[in-house]
Design goal:
Elements lengths: L15 E3 L2 E5 L2 H12 L4 H15 L9 E8 L2 E7 L9 H6 L18 H12 L4 H14 L1 E2 L2 H17 L6 H7 L11 E2 L2 H13 L2 H5 L1 H12 L6 H5 L4 E3 L2 E5 L2 E5 L6 H11 L10 H21 L9 H5 L2 H8 L18 E9 L4 E9 L7 E2 L4 E2 L30 E5 L2 E9 L4 H14 L4 H6 L3 E5 L2 E5 L4 H9 L3 E5 L7 E7 L6 E5 L6 E4 L1
Parallel strand pairs: 17-18
Antiparallel strand pairs: 1-20, 2-10, 2-21, 3-4, 3-11, 4-7, 5-6, 8-9, 9-14, 10-11, 12-13, 14-15, 15-19, 16-17, 19-20
Helix pairs in contact: 1-2, 2-4, 2-5, 5-8, 12-13, 12-15, 12-16
């Protein structure tokens, strides 16, 4: 197990310790909502749903009711996977996009909108594993939507930046409800200012009372359909009615004695596993050495070049997942790593917006849960009188019919959001995740190496300086990244750029259980407003 008391120079905080329950996420109010559910007799699954729903209200800059979601759930001695990513509408196609004049999928408007999966994820998790009713579990989110809450510092900063961006790129009646909902005073709400969304509250009540049926086959589905038809969108009520989340078998590799678990494609968790498989062919003896950073970067680049080529809806793949995760393939890829930076073929990696949470209870249940609009508030569309911000996940589709991730009706796209989970010798260690579009597998690699290779406790693993591969040989590093390491990497051919914005490097949460004592150990991202709520 990890050395929970080791504090490297980068860490300013200690991990949180508790026995009865723990929730870690990027927004304090949401974490406390999940903890309240635990104290009311709910289990970790109930707490995760409550936190996820609450995040749609208290951190709408990253997710909403119209988001997608994924989950890894440890309960009753087994790990379960849930894929609640949406599918492309039945009426969309590459030809339809070409006729509208698009050569690539746009960011805003109805074209990138896919069927949202988050409400279905909440209902599916509640029905299968929850202890409380969905209405009880969603009540904290309903209360915050009805009564409002004051904005925290980072939330206000991101909201203001997004408002100014949307003010420039969104125009016309189709986007009017976004501004009515998220900028009711003609601007973004400020630090300490209270924001509420009665429409959001009513929608959450309808989802809670109907088990999400209203969203997919009821009045809310009708409202989404009507809004789409009015503005030339593709999504229809039939698309919503035909949607169901999928329970899937997680995929895994063993990294130095620990089993690391991710969800299979269409998510990019495969990239994190492939990178770890490549990396374990090397001995990493010193965390703060140029050789360690160089090998981690190169392993990640190789993994990404494969992931971007092959990952898509698994129904459109053959046996790529098994082939990519084979030990022989990892050894073959590891031989490409030399002393200097290489330049594998891969796409340019854009920035994204996502929320991640980890939850655990005193009974042994643990949840790794993630949901996302994709980019900030998503498509810029809010369904009138509902508070439903529709995601823009379809932006990741390719309009080249020869690409694996080419757009097709009813298809799931390459998905960036990935929850992670760790076990050892068949026993749960705990959930982990680092949100942030294409930073996510990179964050998984870095925090896991911090803990497994170098014995950092969860908080220290999150506090440590991060890097992000962008494309080619370009590497972003944080402003507190060791300067001598950055210079040494540059001498090896890496093109190093210091980035001041902390959001660039993802936001993570970790909860682990000490198998000997049952004590929970949690860490929360210092680059966000988050916390570890525990009792």
């Amino acid at each position: 197990m990890f050395d929970y008391f080791y504090q490297p120079y980068a860490s300013k905080r200690y991990s949180v310790f508790a026995r009865n329950g723990m929730v870690a996420t990027s927004q304090r109010l949401a974490a406390m909502a999940g903890l309240d559910i635990l104290k009311k007799g709910g289990n970790a699954i109930d707490a995760a749903i409550a936190t996820a729903a609450c995040l749609t209200v208290v951190e709408p800059t990253s997710n909403g009711i119209g988001s997608d979601a994924f989950a890894l759930i440890w309960t009753k001695g087994k790990l379960y996977g849930l894929n609640a990513s949406g599918v492309a509408p039945a009426s969309i196609s590459i030809d339809a996009m070409k006729k509208r004049g698009f050569n690539e999928m746009p960011v805003y408007g109805f074209e990138p909108v896919m069927v949202p999966g988050a409400p279905a994820a909440w209902a599916a998790c509640s029905t299968r594993f929850g202890r409380l009713t969905l209405r009880e579990v969603l009540q904290p989110a309903i209360d915050y939507a009805e009564n409002g809450y004051p904005l925290s510092t980072n939330l206000a900063r991101v909201w203001d930046a997004d408002f100014h961006k949307y003010e420039k790129v969104l125009s016309g009646p189709m986007f009017a409800d976004w501004f009515r909902t998220f900028a009711p005073a003609g601007r973004a709400p400020t630090v300490g200012e209270t924001w509420a969304s009665p429409d959001h509250a009513r929608t959450l009540k309808a989802i809670a009372e109907s088990g999400a049926e209203d969203f997919y086959r009821g009045e809310l589905a009708e409202r989404i359909d009507r809004f789409s038809r009015e503005h030339g969108g593709f999504i229809r009520r039939s698309d919503l009615a035909n949607y169901h989340p999928e329970w899937v078998d997680p995929i895994t590799v063993n990294y130095r004695g620990y089993d690391v678990w991710e969800l299979p494609p269409n998510g990019q968790g495969l990239i994190a596993l492939l990178a770890l498989n490549i990396l374990k062919n090397f001995d990493l003896t010193d965390k703060e050495s140029v050789d360690t950073y160089h090998k981690e970067i190169e392993a990640l680049k190789l993994a990404f070049s494969d992931g971007k080529k092959y990952i898509t809806d698994p129904r459109f793949m053959t046996d790529e997942t098994a082939a990519l995760l084979s030990e022989d393939y990892a050894r073959e890829r590891s031989r490409m790593i030399g002393r200097t930076a290489i330049e594998p073929a891969a796409g340019t990696l854009p920035k994204g917006g996502t929320v991640y949470l980890a939850a655990a209870d005193g009974e042994g249940n643990m949840v790794s849960f993630i949901q996302s609009n994709y980019m900030e508030f998503g498509s810029g569309l809010v369904v009138p009188e509902t508070g439903i911000a529709l995601q823009n996940r379809g932006h990741t589709f390719s309009l080249n019919p020869n690409d694996a991730n080419a757009l097709a009706p009813g298809k799931k796209t390459y998905h960036t959001i990935i929850p992670g989970f760790l076990t050892k010798d068949g026993r749960p260690v705990g959930p982990f995740g680092v949100m942030g579009a294409y930073m996510q597998p990179q964050g998984h690699l870095q925090v896991l190496s911090n803990m497994i290779d170098f014995g950092l406790h969860p908080q220290a693993a999150l506090d440590a300086p991060r890097w992000q591969w962008i494309s080619g040989k370009t590497i972003y590093v944080e402003q507190h990244f060791p300067n001598h390491i950055a210079q040494a990497l540059a001498r090896r051919g890496h093109e190093i750029k210091v980035i001041l914005q902390p959001d660039t490097f993802g936001r993570g949460q970790i909860i682990y259980r000490n198998d000997d004592t049952g004590v929970l150990i949690g860490g929360s991202e210092p680059r966000a407003d988050g916390t570890v709520a525990a009792w």
